Amino acid sequence: MAHGALLVAYALRAALSIAIIAITGGSPPSGNHSAPGPRALADSAPRPHQAPVYNWSAETQGIVLSSFFYGYGLTQALGGYGAGLLGGKLVLGSGLLLSSALTLLVPRAAELGVGVLVGLQGVIFPAQYTLWAKWAPPLERCSQLPIHLPPPALSSAASYPLRAPLSAGGVGCAWCLCWFLFVYEDPASHPWISAGEREYIVSSLAHQGSSHGRSLPLGAMAKSLPVWAIAIACFCTDWLFYMLLTSMPTFMSNVLHFDLRENGLLSSLPYIGNGLGHILAGLLADFLLARRVLGTAAVRKLFSALGMLLPSVFLVVVPYIGSSSTAAVVLLTLALTIISMTGAGININHIDIAPR
Q1: Does residue 60 lie within any of the structural domains?
Q2: Is residue 198 part of a domain?
Q3: Does some domain include residue 48?
Q4: What is the dihedral of CA 315, 320, 322, 323, to 10 degrees?
Q5: InterPro entries in the record, alphabetically (predicted)?
Q6: Which of 80, 99, 189, 195 has a Cα at 20 to 30 A from 38?
Q7: Which residues of the chain have pLDDT under 70?
Q8: What is the torsional sign of CA 206, 212, 218, 219?
């Protein structure tokens, strides 16, 4: 259920990345700052149902594509605090439902103006971590990552067919109904879990603290070097990943000159590699921890370093390969496959240092 929620969330998040190609006619943006309005289609191929095309400049398209992250960033802390206070199930389900409903309004919002296109999903990831801390035994967290909480994972690839705003929003609303019916906050409240499994999970998590109440140790958090290390590393990694998630379809269309159908298929290949990489990296990390080959700190540092350095090298090479679409897809796939190693590093390290 959590993986399905992330699939829907990524579909909602990237709906505009695909839709903006159709909204702007699939051609490179003009350099002017024209107001959004239908433009002539004399040099364009016939479009289904005569959908309107908007002459948005490069700057306007950038504002539209980045608008999601404004609301996303502002609601992160609110989502984490609310999930600790009210429970991850309620906060995640409510955030996903609201985001799905807003996505349904995207086509109408495009007619009303660029400023209406803003997203709200920041509560989803903190709520996922709150649930994960109550359900995942410590020695299984890395291998559960690609199933329960796949940051890029296969959900990005699988969500490409849903990336039209109307389909993504409709599926999201339907998924939220299933979420509220079948998901439970913790093993103790689940009516169908076996007694053995409940005892195994609860006993393995007995050493960690409970979720916070109304107060938070904000001062201690602000002075914690591990917190800052994770925050900076996550910023760098997420910058790379979300830049690709948001801009890759436009890059495929305007630079590599794929048509929209090829764009969706080829853009999914790096995320397939990313999902498989998350599975292998998680299994390897848990194996190293279970066999005591490396300690927790060493595993987190090694996987984070490799997962950040190698993809950066591959992306630096991309501008120098000319217009070779094959080489570009190969490098992007390698970059997003290897960056999945951070899933067993910084992306799980939050729970290591602060179980609450």
Answers
A1: yes
A2: yes
A3: no
A4: 10
A5: MFS (IPR011701), MFS_Na/Anion_cotransporter (IPR050382), MFS_trans_sf (IPR036259)
A6: 99
A7: 14, 16, 18, 22, 25-54, 106-120, 145-166, 209-213, 259-267, 323, 355-356
A8: negative
